[in-house]
Design brief:
The longest helix is centred in the middle third of the chain and has 51 residues. The protein is an alpha+beta fold. Strand 9 and strand 10 form a beta hairpin. The protein contains 10 helices and 12 strands. This is histidine kinase.
Length: 479
């Protein structure tokens, strides 16, 4: 017995459809075969009646009656020949059995109307199913009206039809058994993978993301299995990234907090000269700014994920924006003896965008370039207009990014080098900001040879209105 479920539904649907089709074919076949046998008998008897009707008007045998001549000459085996008058009374027949006194079946009525009548029914007395075919003889000598009536039993034909019916029903049953076996196999070929996928999915729902669907399934089931395996792999990877992020952010938050707490306690204890106090306050201020940057970066990412980030659009001169960014990161670059070089024409490069968010994008890119560059190196910033777009490139000759990490560097929480700190959100946020400005960000890198990040933004068209824009400070740059 097939258990309840999709397997049973498949089997029942296949079985029901095939059963109805076979039943329809069976009924049509029996109707056709019955009609064929009965029609063959009718045509055979009709041809004999036609011979009788052609011969009777020409009968001229002296010393012998027409009745006896017809009964002796035109009889058929296993068939009773009767001669009736116009009232249906039996004048004579070809058998030795007592004749019916009167015949009033429909074939006689049709014969009196001038047609060749036929009737199928049960014969009174014997109860056998018979076929009767009758025809009136015209132009008989003496104006006597005769009706020739042949009556043949259908029992042998019906037995033959019953045998054919049993045989065809047997074939139908055999076909249904084959359909049941095939549909059961088909159902199992679908249900077993589904059950396997369901069991593994249940394990995934319980948090076992190392579980995988095994088996080479085809078509939609194979696609479903691959999708679920990929989903589990991505969830496991995301969980690992989340754990790494929590560990990293905990370290990033603990370091400045430790410095702030240490210097606060030191300054609170008193007894230090003004120089040490100034140094301590600078460290507290620097670490506080660092904390604010980390928190703002996380808040920005949260807003972007919830689609709650609103852009204040206006006209931005990217050349002025890059010059301002170079001033912001100059101190950090100076500490590593890194030179910043801007390559652009002395003209305005105008785009329509949120200046604060674009500053956050390029500040993050420049900060990363400094962070991962060697000492005494040069970072090249370039601006150029290509078609309807303005491209900003930041190129360094630092440590570079491996091909494996390059494909994931824009993923959230991903960090190429955990030792350099950061949340791993910088490039993910920058990517989304660029996309919201209808732009593209392209990263090219070679391990040990440096990295080039190119941001392409739509240039401001002449017909677009120019709006004033104010930049604000306070955006984090840690990635």
């Amino acid at each position: 017995m097939i258990k309840k479920g999709i397997g049973r539904q498949i089997v029942l649907h296949y079985f029901f459809v095939v059963f109805l089709a076979l039943l329809l074919v069976e009924v049509i076949f029996m109707i056709v075969i019955r009609a064929y046998y009965y029609d063959t008998i009718y045509k055979h008897v009709e041809s004999r009646i036609q011979s009788v009707s052609e011969f009777a008007p020409k009968f001229k045998e002296p010393g012998q009656s027409l009745q006896s001549y017809l009964l002796n000459t035109f009889s058929l085996g296993d068939t009773e020949l009767q001669l009736l008058d116009e009232k249906g009374n039996v004048i004579d027949n070809s058998t030795n059995f007592a004749a019916e006194t009167s015949v009033q079946t429909s074939d006689v009525t049709q014969a009196l109307a001038g047609d060749t009548g036929s009737w199928i029914g049960k014969q009174p007395g014997t109860g056998q199913q018979v076929m009767a075919v009758s025809k009136k003889l015209d132009n008989i000598v003496g104006d006597q009206v005769y009706i020739v009536r042949y009556t043949t039993s259908l029992e042998k034909v019906n037995d033959k039809l019953f045998t054919i019916t049993l045989f065809s029903v047997g074939i139908m049953v055999a076909v249904l058994v084959i359909v049941f076996v095939v549909s059961t196999g088909l159902a199992n070929s679908i249900v077993r993978p589904i059950n396997n996928i369901r069991d593994v999915s249940a394990q995934m729902a319980q948090g076992r993301f190392d579980a995988r669907i095994k088996g080479d399934y085809r078509f939609e089931l194979g696609e479903l299995a691959s999708t679920l395996n990929y989903m589990a792999q991505e969830i496991a990877r995301t969980n690992q990234i989340k754990d790494d992020f929590i560990s990293s952010i905990s370290h990033e938050l603990r370091t400045p907090l430790t410095s702030i707490k240490g210097w606060s306690e030191t300054l609170n204890s008193g007894g230090y000269d003004p120089e040490e106090t100034r140094i301590g306050m600078q460290i507290i201020s620097k670490e506080t700014d660092r904390l604010i940057g980390l928190v703002e970066e996380i808040l920005d990412f949260s807003k972007l994920e919830q689609d709650a980030m609103k852009l204040v659009m206006g006209t931005v001169d990217l050349r002025e924006l890059l010059q301002e960014i170079m001033l912001n990161v100059w101190a950090k670059a100076e500490m590593k003896q890194i030179k910043l070089q801007l390559d652009s024409e002395e003209t305005a490069y105008l785009v329509h965008g949120d200046g604060n968010r674009l500053k956050q994008v390029f500040l993050n890119i420049a900060d990363n370039a400094i962070k991962f560059s060697h000492e005494n190196s040069i970072i090249f910033l370039s601006l150029q207009r290509i078609g309807d777009n303005i491209e900003v490139s930041v190129q360094d000759t630092g440590i570079g990014i491996s091909e494996e990490n390059l494909a994931r560097v824009r993923e959230r929480f991903f960090q190429v080098d955990h030792q350099n700190g950061g949340t791993g959100l910088g490039l993910a946020i920058s990517q989304q900001f660029v996309e919201r400005h209808q732009g593209q960000m392209l990263i090219k890198s070679e391990l040990g040879a440096g990295t080039t990040i190119t941001v392409s933004l739509p240039a401001l068209q002449d017909e677009q209105p120019i709006e004033p824009l104010q930049l604000t400070e306070g955006y984090g740059t840690e990635s």
